Amino acid sequence: MLTRPIDLRSDTVTLPTSAMRTAMARAEVGDDVYGEDPTVNRLEELAAQRVGKAAAMFVPSGTMGNLCALLAHCNRGDEAIVGDQSHIYNYEAGGASVVGSVAFHVVPNQPDGTIALDNLRAAVRWTDDPHCAETRLICLENTHNSCGGTVLSPEYLASVAAFARERDLLVHLDGARVFNAAVALGVNVTELTRHADSVMFCLSKGLSAPVGSVLCGDEAFIRRARRARKVLGGGMRQAGVIAAAGIVALETMVDRLAEDHANARMLAEGLAGFPQIAIEPARVQTNIVIFTLRDGWSADTFVAHLRERGVLMGDMGSGRIRAVTHDGIDAGDIAETIAVVAEVVRGVRG
Ligand code: TLP
Fold first, then answer.
1. Segment 43-101, tens digit of pLDDT
2. Which of 9, 43, 82, 199 is disulfide-compatible with 173, CB 3.0–4.6 A?
């Protein structure tokens, strides 16, 4: 048993840094529903500027950020095209349909997290026939969580943006981990975000802030999104206390994501050494490692055995297991994880 658990379930388990705690304690605050919290205002300006948009809105979660985006872009009865592996479709409780009467038009994600242009083309409804919902929005995800933290390239994003313009559609980017994508590619994040009308990114994942995400877009869009956030009960008051950590996250925690990517690759390479594990290390581009087990071993038993020995991973269903690297996990933890996996593999077999 390890002296402390190695928690690879998600990068959402990251803890605020001491610089964040200091900034939180000292944050100047006001009532943000009146637009009077100076720290929230500063975070929103910084976030908008980082992703190259005119305006931004602080929200308590990525789920609320995506939902506000869909509500601000779409009218009741409109259709949003989403990937079948997307977080918006699978893990956000169908919010846009529940709250906004927005229909999801689900198309396949490719293994690399993209949606093929042919699939987009086929999904758009060309007609003003009243039988059909009106296509309004395309949602993309970068990095793509369920596809294994894969990175959507600027070229691909540009091709979707061009397609959307041609068809008079909008593009929303679920960029919960868009800074991981930018760091992996070695480009400024605006190379990725400029192809979308709106982008949501999370402060509370790899960037280690305790709470919060930011939705960015043009001024008119953010005005509509603020109304949606109010409907959802997401108008916060002295939110500067948490926004302060978000500022530290953006200013100090982006470049270090490269370490998480290197650790994820190290983990993937270690796992590939076990014949019982199916994984292609070359496909691990950022901080998410997804693998399956061979020979009919069950993922939940494997995950339970790891847990008993102090290593936490996520069972994603369909036999898939996810491990996510983040601040607080170093190369030594990865070596220990691989040693624990070796024990489990031997134990379960023997
Ligand atoms: N993802 C979480 C879980 O919900 C699966 C995780 O542990 O990875 N978009 C993407 C791509 C996400 O991965 C997540 C969270 C969200 C949106 C939602 O963010 P929160 O959890 O802040 O609502």
1. 999 999 999 999 999 999 999 999 999 999 999 999 999 999 999 999 999 999 999 99
2. 199
Check if the beta carbon of residue 181 is closer than 8 Å to that of residue 192: yes
Q: Which amino acid is at 335?
A: A
Distance (Å, rounded) from C-alpha 219 to C-alpha 196? 15
Q: Which atom of ligand 1 is nearest to the CA of 86?
A: 11
**Residue whose CA is at the smallest distance from ligand 1 atom 3:** 91
In tens, the pLDDT along 314-324 reads 999 999 999 99
Residue 91 CA, ligand 1 centroid: distance in Å: 8
Q: 149 burial class (0-12, 13-18, 19+ CB within 10 angstroms)?
A: buried
Ligand 1 centre to CA of 87 (Å) is 7
| Spatial contact of 227 and 19, defined as CB atoms under 8 Å apart | no
Closest CA relative to residue 86, chosen from 128, 46, 140: 140
Token pair listed for 44 = 């929103």
Give residue for tokens 């491990």: 323
Alpha-carbon radius of gyration of the chain:
21
For residue 252, whether the previous peptide bond is cis, meaning omega lies within 30 degrees of 0, is no
Q: How far is CA 325 from CA 9, 174, 313, in A?
A: 9, 20, 10
Select from 89, 145, 242 the residue to mutate for testing ligand 1; criterion: most ligand atoms less than 8 Å from CB.
Answer: 145
CA torsion angle 93 64 314 323 (round to 10)? 140
The structure's pTM equals 0.97
Ligand 1 environment, Cβ below 6 A:
10, 12, 61-63, 66, 87, 91, 141, 145, 174, 176, 202, 204, 213
**What stretch of H or E contains 253?**
none
Distance 84 CA to ligand 1 centre (A): 15
* C-alpha 275 – ligand 1 centre gap (Å): 31
Q: Give the Å distance between the CA of 176 and the centre of ligand 1.
A: 7
Per the CB < 8 A criterion, the answer to whether 143 and 114 are in contact is no
Site of tokens 């990095």: 143
Please give the domain boundaries of the chain with CATH numbers for all domains: 6-13+256-347 (3.90.1150.10), 18-252 (3.40.640.10)
